[in-house]
Input
Amino acid sequence: MAKKSVLVVDDEPYILKSMAFVLKRAHYEVLEATNGEEALEALKEHRPALVFLDVMMPKKSGYDVVQEVRSDPDLSGTFMVLLTAKGQDSDREEGLSLGADDFMTKPFSPSKILEKAREVLGE
Output
């Protein structure tokens, strides 16, 4: 069976590496990006099934990435989970209104990331 790919996008190296580690250990193919522009390049090139996307990043925010992905018919099936340190309801509402599928507030345990990946990808 082909591995299902997951894109992890965060400008914080520790968060990026810990999320990638737990997903790789569970045998997912993991792609990494450190800003919104890299995220869009990876999305267009690899078409991952699932994206964990930090909201506050350099170059393009997670919100910008969600908007661009949702306006691209080729990427419309991508499941996107926004990650943010800001837990305000207004952030959640904005992200979901732009087309994010789910929202997680930092800090979270890596096991929560794995749980979400299994839920979304049907593992």
Notes: The helical segments are 13-25, 36-46, 62-70, 89-98, 110-121.
